[in-house]
Amino acid sequence: MGRLEDLRINAYLSEVARGYRNNAFVADVLFPTIYSEKEKIDIFQFNKEAFNIYDTERAIRANSNVISPQGFSKHTATLTEHDLSYPIDYREEQEAEKVKLQLHATNVVTNGLQLKHEKECADLVQNPNNYASTNKIILSGKSCFNWGISDPVGVVEQAKNAVSSKIAQDPNTMVIGQDAWVSLKKHPQLKGLISNNLNKLVSLELLKEIFEVENIVIGKSIFADANGNFTRIWQDNIILAYVPNLGASRTEYDPSFAYTVRKKDALNIDEYNKEGNKVKYIRATDIYTPFLVGAEAGYLISGVNDPNYDRNEDLKLQSTVYTKSAEESNG
Asked: How is 44-72 classified by DSSP, letter by letter?
């Protein structure tokens, strides 16, 4: 009976793990999940031909229009297994309610797996080496967004144009690192586009309207590095990308910026004991790999904040620039 009870608890904990979501994690907006029956998979790298708009008109008795599938290359990859365990001493279990303690352990190990996934995805899209020279920019000096005279609207428009010139689609998704967001939400240029902007900060909803990007999220997650220092996963960067809204019908054949390929039903919770049977381990296992499959559908803006920013100089420059602009507007 005890074995049956443990099996039922493990099945319940697996369902808890599959439904677990940490709202600080945003990688899924850039890396939507595709499920695979197998661990060995074909990965399609998309180029601009995959995003073509085709001539579909056909005259009477003319031949049908045929797509020439040249928009991708293919290579084989094997998904990676990830697992993480949480120890529970038999004395702890005796002192606590069994299911509550195991639920806590499940949340800890599931969060650990998701944090690793977040970090892997962020490292891929924040690496300038993964982008062509036309699909990235490193801001410097007074072009950085913590300077009030900078032009975030112009930089984002440049990024959108770079992507649309490659794939004939505008980016529809943006991930903003927390440090970059702090500067953007109080930027004078953006506040100036809001009616009655006195002492207001720019909200995400307003930013979507200003940048004309339908899905914008802030990357706030933090991890502890090898030295125990807390570091933001999403750094001083902004990533724009085209990610098609395909929902459950999404497959690896659909062109996109990136995907996470996950083995179907691989996320499971089980338990095991080590020698002596005094410590039980609650273990989460998942099998997945994130892939950047269409870098031409993305754009990286890095160096958003100038480390040598001078507030006093900035205020003087803003006063000069905006006074001149007002005079020009008044004719």
From this structure: EEE-GGGGPPPP----TTPPPP-----SE
